[in-house]
Amino acid sequence: MKLTTYEQNMLDGLEGEDKQFAMKLIVQVAEAMDASRLQEISQAHVVDTLTTGTGETGPEYAYKLRDMQAKVAVPTTINVGNIDLKNPENNVPAEYAFEVSREVMNIYKDMGCEPTYTCSPFQEPANQLSLGQHVAWGESSAVPFANSVFGARTSRYGQFIASCAAICGRVPYAGLHVTENRRAEIVISIENLPDHFKDMGLFYHILGYRVGQIVSEKIPVIIGIDPDISRDHLKAFGAAAATSGGIGMFHMVGITPESPTLEDALQHQAAEDYHEITLVELDTVLQELTENEVGQALEAVAFGAPHLSYDEVIEIFHLFEDVDWDIQLPVYIAMSRRTQDEIEANGMIKKFDEADITIVADRCVYYAGILWDDGLKVMTDSAKWAHYAPKCIDAEVTIGSFKDCVDSAVAGKVVLQGFSEEE
């Protein structure tokens, strides 16, 4: 593998212990991927702040970076951790992870990372990537957004790799950094589904989850999507597909920058397979993610996985206004600290507080430390939440639309419209 003079200097330790440590890992990964060279990156999103739960790294790695006084070489944002630093009243101090998680999250901030602590880095103003921009993003729901919506280039980087890439500014020139590896392999059609479903946020959670099941780690191209689809719907689709499958990229014709046509998405080659999504399939997925029947008493409602956008929070706010904030259950709404700052600035958070609705930042609610762990019955808007919560906090989960979740909070039990044939 060919290295530039500067890359060799980093590997030899001439640019500091931290860069040598990072380069050793990146070079080993590059060799395992048969990369002929490294690729310089301009930005990173690190994911090593989770010390417990699915995707955990453990604190020892962060302590090692701290001991060598590591610093990032490119602008870098930080993923969620296991505690809410912005709203400490949300945390359970008795949890083992509390002090450790706070320490680890602060270590990455001290390395020069921007303390965004969000799983939706693509919603941050500084993370609006450009076509062809090479970055090193971790977080399963963020990677497909970077590749598929921005047209940037990142492989699906997990623990250790994204942070080492941030320190040395390099990744292997392999995977989704290489044009030919970004070719769509499987065509997924939703052209014959009723158009009114395509305005529903729930539709994209369920569709994404089904697509992930179909394609696993292969790259799909979706036809039949409205080119005016919102970024929130794209976020939901990518997060769900990366949860049930292992995708790092999807194409949507007329939406993904590299895919103005189906032929472009396929790089003018034949597709390996074709699959037409049916309503029966979507209903089946809905049932797979539904453990509580309609009318079942609930104990909580949780919004936001990935973190909600400002527009989504406004939508939920108005839905609660429509029912006069008459809720019977604890409600949790997860968002980035920047989004929380925005709703504090416009006064919305006061109404949430008055209704005893808990705003959560810096973390996900399906990790232990906020909700109790004893078979809790929860309603959520998110396929990702519904997938992980049973594993992480032993919750019994039902997924529904924003309106389903609000109506369930009012009724104190599952209210679920699902996918009706009627508009």
TrEMBL record:
One Gene Ontology MF term: lyase activity
Cite the InterPro entries for this sequence. Answer: PMDh-L-like_dom
Q: Does the keyword Ribosomal protein apply?
A: no
- Could you tell me the keywords of this UniProt record? Iron, Lyase
Q: Which domain of life is it from?
A: Bacteria
Ranges where the Phosphomevalonate dehydratase large subunit-like domain occurs: 1-407
List the protein's name: Aconitase X catalytic domain-containing protein
